[in-house]
Amino acid sequence: MESSEQTKTISKERISLSIQRHSAAHILAQALKKIRKNVKLAIGPDTENGFFYDVLVDPPLKEEELKEIEKLMKQIKKQKQYFIRFYMPIDQAIDYLRSINEDFKVELAIELKNQGEKELSFYKNVSFDGSHEYFIDMCNGPHVEHTGQIGAFKLKSISGAYWKGNAQGPQLQRVYGYLFETEEELEQYEKMMEEAKKRDHRKLGMELELFAISEKIGPGLILWLPKGFIIKEELEKWAKETEEQWGYQRVTTPIITKESLFYTSEHLPHYKEYMFPPMELDDKEKYYLKPMNCPFHHTIFSLKPRSYKELPLRLAEFGICHRYEESGALFGLMRVRSMTMNDAHIYCTEEQAIEEFLRVIELHKYYYNVLGIKSYWMELALRNPKNNKYHGNEEMWQKAEAMTRKAMELSGLDYVVEHDGAAFYGPKVDFQIKSSIGRVFTASTCQLDLFMPEKFDLKYVDKNGNFQRPVCIHRSPLGTHERFVGFLIEHFEGAFPTWLAPEQIRILPVGEAYVSYANELFNIFKKNHLRVSIEIEETLAKRIRNSEKLKIPYMIVVGEKEKQSRTINVRNYFTGQQKEWELQSFLAYIKEEIQTKRIQEKTKNKTDKK
User: Fold this and answer.
1) How are beta strands 460-461 and 428-434 bridged, if at all?
2) Rg (CA), the chain
3) CB 235 within 8 A of CB 486
4) Contact 120, 132 (CB under 8 A)
């Protein structure tokens, strides 16, 4: 039974949004098949804010048909059709899919057969009493119990897509939709999207020259440009300094490994679709690019006998990982195929686990508060015992869930509970952060894990000389560089606080006669480790506009008065205020601002208010 304190902490318990969105993709396919009998279905996953389905249909779908499709989907939701999962032997499934002309599903089924699968999962929609069957689709799920549990949704667009992301393959159409818990949240999201267009990290990233994506390199693979690299590097430097103070030790692990490691961790059986294909080297061994760092850190722990006196052992790494995301799911910095993760694994005793997990939550709070992120909460994803994807025994799950909940309650932060969204080896906690325009991002995932120490045979000697299994806590407060910088671009609208800004000061001499004084200032700022530049070309008015456009925190204009008085005229981008400073006073001021990582709020002007 939940305590009254716990009941206050939990905002609400709900079905995972990802499950609702996956279920919405299913009824989108159902509606499409009813409206266009000749539709061939490809894939239909959930996305960060909704869902989509890739289809082939002749003649192609038109945008004006979305209203009719959406109307039918809402009728299906209202009918509360029940989802029933069943399995077919693989050969029978292939024959069935051929009989209904689902060519893309046949191709997927054959691939699964070649990978050793013996049966395939299907879902069918039936009436409450089971007397009527509406629709069947091949899918691994999970889905909601019935269509009435699907949240508020809206179809938003149709775009082109290639089958399996291959430009040489069939050209498909992708039907996108949004989905949220309530109509109010959906309406709020649509308004937010209008504001987000101005803050789109892809648009600002190009304008501010932070990062690029090139077809010559490949989709989902980020090129960090010099200015973007500075932001990434400042975040990493801060995290490393912080983690050292919080008792972490740094390690580095390879980006590839033998496939046996991922069989031990069970990522190959359960996560293979998100892993890049293997490389077969000279010794005929298969090697995989790592999608996560966990198995490598477990291996480091197991390299020598461990004593309880070493625990908690906190191993941290900014590890480069690769995940084969579907091409349709790739989105700027937010969803990529190569990422650098602010990862760490804490190995501790069961008695230490709650306190250590609480410290992880406190570290998240510290980072977010420094960055001026005021709205954030946790989501606890639990298992559904009826779903066979989860491994480990009942006692393990009960213990892991109880310890996780206890730490979350002690933190004082709000959290919600989602059912059936846990990792296959344990419950997980997602940290959700809301940007300044109300857009919600999943910043990081933390887990209290009792399963992997068993799989990797991790142990330590307790004070009585007996072997015990450690608890492993997975944590990544700053997530990946890619996703977190993408969030910060949109959160700050490209106007980074001074300590993160790629360029902190720009010096603008009024004319040629003042360039020497500008150079003198430049050298002083450089010696004080400030990121500074001088712009001489173009008119002063245009150079001021350029500095404003690039959102540089401080603009210094130098002319005759400044040269004679040996002062500087400083304009603050955030406040719009212009002030004359004595050089050493300004140096002390900006150094203090950087050291304390102070956030300056952008003052709204009349245009902003409109």
Assistant:
1) unpaired
2) 27
3) no
4) no
Q: Output the pLDDT for position 14.
A: 63
Residue 405 C-beta-side C-alpha neighbours within 13 Å: 19
Asked whether residue 8 carries a pLDDT value surpassing 80, the answer given is no
Longest dimension (CA), the chain: 92
Which positions ≥6 away from 421 have C-beta within 8 Å? 16, 18, 19, 379, 381, 382, 428
CB 53 within 8 A of CB 32: yes
C-alpha dist (Å) from residue 404 to 183, 347, 357, 428, 503:
32, 15, 7, 8, 42
> pTM of the full predicted structure?
0.75
Rounded-to-integer distance, Cα 43 and Cα 55, Å: 8
Residue linked to tokens 């191709």: 107
Structure confidence at residue 12 (pLDDT): 40
**Residue 396 CA: distances (Å) to CA of 88, 347, 360, 392, 484:** 31, 17, 21, 6, 33
Let me know how long the chain is. Answer: 610
Which residue is listed with tokens 């149709």? 158
Name the strand (E) or helix (H) holding 306.
strand 306-307
CA distances from 205 to 21, 84, 464, 485, 554 (A): 29, 45, 57, 10, 20
In the Cβ-directed half-sphere of 384, how many Cα atoms lie within 13 Å?
Answer: 17
| Band (188; pLDDT cuts 50, 70, 90) | confident
SS (H, E, C) 546-575: HHHHCCCCEEEEECHHHHHHCEEEEEECCC
Domains and CATH numbers, the chain: 13-181 (3.30.980.10), 199-491 (3.30.930.10), 505-609 (3.40.50.800)
E-strand ranges in 109-264 read 119-126, 133-138, 152-162, 171-180, 211-212, 223-224, 249-250, 256-258
Helix/strand/coil for 198 = helix
Mean pLDDT of 584-608: 83
Phi, psi of 233 (to 5 degrees): -70, -40
Question: Please, what is the angle between helix 481-491 and helix 226-245, to 10°?
Answer: 110
Question: Are 470 and 460 within 8 A, CB to CB?
Answer: yes
**588/304 Cα distance (integer angstroms):** 49
**In terms of Cα–Cα distance, which of 263, 351, 352 is closest to 314?**
352
Neighbours of 468 (CB within 10 A): 17
The whole-number pLDDT of residue 604 equals: 61
Report the alpha-carbon distance of residue 412 to residue 599 in Å, rounded: 25
